[in-house]
Amino acid sequence: MLVELRKQTGRSISFFSGVDFTVDPAEGLNGVCDYLVSLSPEQLFLTAPVLIIFEAKNEDIKGGFAQCIAAMIAAQRFNEREHNAIPLIHGVVTTGTNWRFLQLEDQLVRIDQREYYIDNANKLIGILLAITGKAAPAADLVT
User: Fold this and answer.
1) Which residues contact 49 (CB under 8 A, 6 or more apart)?
2) N or C terminus of the chain with fewer C-beta within 10 Å?
3) In a 3-state reduction of DSSP, which class is residue 67?
4) Which of 34, 66, 29 is nearest to 52 (CA)?
5) Which of 62, 64, 66, 79 is nearest to 24 (CA)?
6) Rounded-to-integer distance, Cα 140 and Cα 2, Å
7) CATH number of this structure's domain 2-132
8) pTM of the model
9) Are 5 and 128 within 8 A, CB to CB?
């Protein structure tokens, strides 16, 4: 999915897997992200703004929400620290086949009540393109 997203955005974004994303260890905002997407095309080094955090979980999407939200807060602080803040940080918790989307705006987290499935890959790519600003706005998330 992420390779296709990068292709469809004309390589204007970058994505990383398994990178150390230590932002504020004193606040517990440290660790390795499963995947993250930056709005920078720089693929060698992670640069702000970080837009999407992906958390991969084995069959337990709800169990991944807390970890994903913590990583989203870390992304928000990373972007601010790099003087490249953006209004919304997006998160995804996925089993690989099932996907749930989250948004962080200021200190408010919204979790989409709908679950999306890999068998509708075009829908998932469409949502990801909308998040990156390369397509029509994403569907509204329900609090």
Assistant:
1) 38, 39, 40, 79, 82, 84, 85, 86
2) C
3) helix
4) 34
5) 79
6) 22
7) 3.90.1570.30
8) 0.88
9) yes
Render each residue's pLDDT in the chain as its tens digit; 143 residues.
889 999 999 999 999 998 889 999 998 888 888 999 999 998 888 999 999 899 888 888 998 999 999 999 999 999 999 999 999 999 999 999 999 999 999 999 999 999 999 999 999 999 999 999 865 444 444 43
Environment class of 130 (CB within 10 Å of its CB; exposed 0-12, middle 13-18, buried 19+): middle
How many angstroms separate the Cα of 11 from the Cα of each of 7, 40, 43, 132? 6, 9, 9, 12
Q: How far apart are the first and last CA of the chain?
A: 26
- Written as one string, the DSSP assignment of 11-43 is T-SEEEES-B--SBGGGTB-SB-SEEEESS---
DSSP-based three-state secondary structure for 135: coil
Per-domain boundaries in the chain: 2-132
